[in-house]
Prior knowledge:
The complex is a heterodimer. By secondary structure, chain A is of the alpha/beta class. Chain A is built from four helices and nine strands, in the order E-E-H-E-E-E-H-E-H-E-H-E-E. Chain A has a single domain (3-135), classed as Glucose Oxidase, domain 1. In chain A, the strands form two sheets. A seven-stranded mixed sheet of chain A has the order 1-9-8-2-5-6-7. In chain A, strands 3-4 form a two-stranded antiparallel sheet. In chain A, strand 8 and strand 9 form a beta hairpin. The longest helix of chain A is centred in the middle third of the chain and has 10 residues, at 68-77. Chain A starts with a strand and ends with a strand. The mean pLDDT of chain A is 93. Chain B is α/β, with parallel strands linked by helices. Chain B has a five-stranded parallel sheet, sandwiched between helices. A four-stranded parallel sheet of chain B has the order 7-6-5-8. The radius of gyration of chain B is 21 Å and the shape is globular. Chain B has 18 helices and 13 strands. In chain B, helix 7 (141-149) crosses helix 10. Chain B has helices at 5-11, 17-32, 50-65, 69-72, 97-112, 123-126, 141-149, 160-169, 198-210, 233-247, 264-267, 280-289, 309-319, 336-344, 347-353, 369-376, 386-392, 404-413; strands spanning 38-40, 44-46, 78-80, 171-173, 187-191, 219-222, 253-254, 276-278, 299-307, 329-334, 356-360, 380-383, 398-401. In chain B, strand 5, helix 9 and strand 6 form a beta-alpha-beta unit. The chains are: A alpha/beta, B alpha/beta. The interface between A and B is large, with 41 and 47 residues.
Amino acid sequence: MAGTVIRGHAGIGPAAEGEALVAHDNFSARYDLDRIRGVFSRPAHKLHDENYVGKVLVLNIAKGGVATAWMLHEMASRGMAPAALLLNYANPIIAQGAAFAGFPLIDRFETDITRAIETGQHVAVDPAAGTVTVDGGAA
Amino acid sequence: MRLTDHEKSIQAGEHGAARQRALAQQIEIGRFFDAEDFVEVAQAHIMADTESLGEAGVAFMEELAQLPEAETRVVIPTITDPRGADFNAYGRINHDAAYVELERRADKAFRALGILMTDTCINYQTMMPPVIGEHLAMGDTGVVIYSNSVQGARTNYEGGPSALAAAMTGRTPRYGFHLDQHRRGTARFEVRHRPGDWSEWGALGGMIGRQMGSYFQVPVIDGIQGSGPAPTSDDLKHFGAALASFGSTALFHMVGVTPEAPDLETCFDGAPPDPVSLGKADFDAFLSEYAIEGDGLDVVVFAAPQLSLLELEKAANLIKGRRVADGVALVIATNPENKNAADRMGLTATLEEAGAVVLEGVCFYQMHARELGEANGWTRLMTNSAKLSNIIGGYGYEPVLADMARCVDSAVAGRIV
């Protein structure tokens, strides 16, 4: 795919692509999501009521508790997971959850990833290389 | 990563496919965090509730449990976080029987691996407290921050599958808080208002947690020493649990209180940064964020973390001889050890005669809180736990944060007072 390449630290999981859903806010599967309906449910979250299923989620940092490590696997088993997760800073829980679920995750980009990509842009994620390719150029 | 001969033999599958898979997963995480090698851990603590496991996680555990014991049995003492249902009391809170059945399946599968079902997030107050320098793989944010900060042990957040991998290999990748360089202070807070009760200790944790920019930040808290008596284990429990919940924070230093913080200078490499000052007005502002319009009340919850024996005693003293109002529930969660002690000491009887429900082995937000709310008509929730206030909004509740006495008064009055 032609487009602008953004580099991060080598990530976890297989390559993936999809439409971006972006906010400069944080991420926890337990605190922020209605995992049955596939939407952000925490009222204070900037993506409140947004559907994340199949999207490349782009957020700031991983927050909250430990449960996300199991939950990514559970969400993926029902086909209700995002396509990938791009963060400025992951925490161990997200990394462990991604490793367990075989879920694409990259963090520590050369730039603030929540400013570099806009909601609706098509992005391709390559965790092994630690790169994200943004269709049509970065924001 | 650099592997020992033993680790290479696990990698080669000589200890079975399950341990081989566990180590491969750990290597992937180690590479992600640039770990150079593994560190052996003395204990693992696993989040094992079915709300986070889901059907998929339970099925995964059941598959493991069917393998030969030699290939799956844990190699270090391994304990568990609260489960997702109280097998004795689920009917009293209209907990869906389907979830209870899922919980029974999970319980059986974990036991088959030799895991001790302690069902607790306050192991440090009831089981075997970690000690300074001990490397661990702990699987609850509150347990991690308490172990690291108050006890000087060394652990990262180990999510369920990761703590399970550590239990099966006896080690974890050496990154984060296992390393000296990540245990240094990165931010400084000067507290000018001594927290008065557990909701205020939690509020302090919440305020600092919100300012943390990543997992690797380590706040240093000054101003507590000398402002009153030394904080108690329950004070630091509420403070740490909220800090971890709001901040995804795994370690703090409290000057003059915690073991790696004898004085301010020791906490930092170089000169301490300028402090962020937190005074009474900041506490009031934080607490006012968890206030809601009107005085309607559905449920009062004491949990998150589970209550210590002394917290149970305080709750019992506050409600003794009074009665929870009709139409309001008072739900209290502790671990099986403290429930047993409270039974023996008459605290459970005092609480339940007043209309409270004392649950064991669970925590409110780890037991399908959304469905419980729907089944019982609970929306407006009052608690003294800042951690619970932070979490429970995502489950469709409107939380109010207040001290334990006001929570009990409200439960008795049937409205927020």
